Amino acid sequence: MDLNPLINYEVGNLLNKHNLLFPLIKAELIEDKIKDFIVQDEEITEELKKIKSQNSIKNEEEFEEWKIKKGIKTDSLKQQILKAIKLRKYTQDTFSNKVEARFLERQSVLDQVTYSLIRIRDPFKANELYFRITDKEAKFEDIAAEFSEGIEKDTRGIVGPLALAKAHPKVQNVLRTLKEGELHNPILIDKWTLIIRLEKMRKAKLDLSTRNLMIQELFEMSINDEARIIINQFLGKKSS
């Protein structure tokens, strides 16, 4: 895409200054990539059915009321659906063959985990609490609710479910070594001593939902890179 016939340097530079050039170029690139895809009326009808089902719309009267409430016009809604279907076709056609490689690259990040945590500043107190739990003098959740000094105190120690990658790297390493229900001895992270028990580890699988996520990630990476290259070339010509 050559921007020079479309906008001059000064306008482009001003748009870029206010972070408007990138989304504009990205939108134009998407329009260009999907323009040749054909959508059948039946496909639009099917998407309209999904919208009605997701919003518990029982009849056309409720559908009209829903559109008015949302401030959506019928033609505008159909155009949005048309664009969404075309984009889905483009991304599926372009990136489906790269999904497996992307999944293997991202699999560890996609793992979901739920764990219990007690966070204490005093390492000696943490050790005492750890032995109270291992000796069955007290339950983990009761100790967490009474003694933990982090926000997990309010959930009786439960953290998650969340992406394993969102946990502290040292916590990630600990969780990967544990079996479900297993308790780890206290570890020191920064100013805190942590007692951790793994509750549930859900390994990522390449199901339909994950496939669609991988395709979306690949598409975003590709379109963003292309938009940046176009902008850099356009703005660079003036300075060279």
Short description:
The protein is 60% helix and 14% strand.
Descriptive keywords:
single chain, 240 residues, alpha+beta, four-stranded antiparallel sheet, 10 helices
Write up what this structure looks like.
By secondary structure, the protein is α+β, with helices and mostly antiparallel strands. Helix content is 60%, strand content 14%. The chain has helices spanning 9-17, 21-34, 41-54, 60-70, 74-95, 99-110, 123-134, 140-147, 169-177, 208-239; strands spanning 112-120, 158-163, 183-189, 192-202. β3 and β4 (192-202) form a beta hairpin. The longest helix has 32 residues, at 208-239. The mean pLDDT is 93.
Shape: elongated
**Side-by-side strand order of the widest sheet:** 2-1-4-3
Our measurement of the CA-to-CA distance between the termini, rounded to an integer number of angstroms, reads 19 Å
Percent range of helical residues: 55-70%
Strand-helix topology:
Blueprint: H1 9-17, H2 21-34, H3 41-54, H4 60-70, H5 74-95, H6 99-110, E1 112-120, H7 123-134, H8 140-147, E2 158-163, H9 169-177, E3 183-189, E4 192-202, H10 208-239
